[in-house]
């Protein structure tokens, strides 16, 4: 990497860091471009060059945080031992992040309001592909029914995302969280080849 490219990468990182802090504290609407540039020690020109506008900067911040959320969920799945328990743990971990103030405000409230449908975000696409691979493996093992892996992955990812959005937007997120996770488990269990026997 030459010096110019290195400087551009550093400036981009500084602006994302400053914006992430401002968006978390003030929200998108109340944050100004002067907040970002002053805190980053850069000019508006650097912001325009790297992101185009404030919306472009929000998109970069959302992608960074959403990618971190995906990593956190993946680690939760690995801790649960992978496979079917891991898939459920990943979904639950993602939903639980709706209680994180930064995630709640930037990704789940301001993000959809400014950037549109979260299922179309690049970071969500990456998460979807990971879930699809897991579903394909579970189908091959006979754990999950012989259904279209992409369809199942999209429904699982969509259920976790919409549960997180519901938790974040609710008046009492902590009260809603367990309900959301319980419903997510119930929906996901329908994919199992041999669902657990219903309790009488």
From TrEMBL:
Record keywords, A-Z: DNA-binding, Transcription, Transcription regulation
Top-level division of the source organism's lineage: Bacteria
InterPro entries, per database record: Homeodomain-like_sf, HTH_TetR, Rv0078-like_C
Residue intervals of the HTH tetR-type domain: 9-69
Pfam families linked to this entry: TetR_C_41 (PF21351), TetR_N (PF00440)
Residue ranges flagged as DNA-binding region: 32-51
PROSITE patterns per record: HTH_TETR_2 (PS50977)
Protein known as: TetR/AcrR family transcriptional regulator
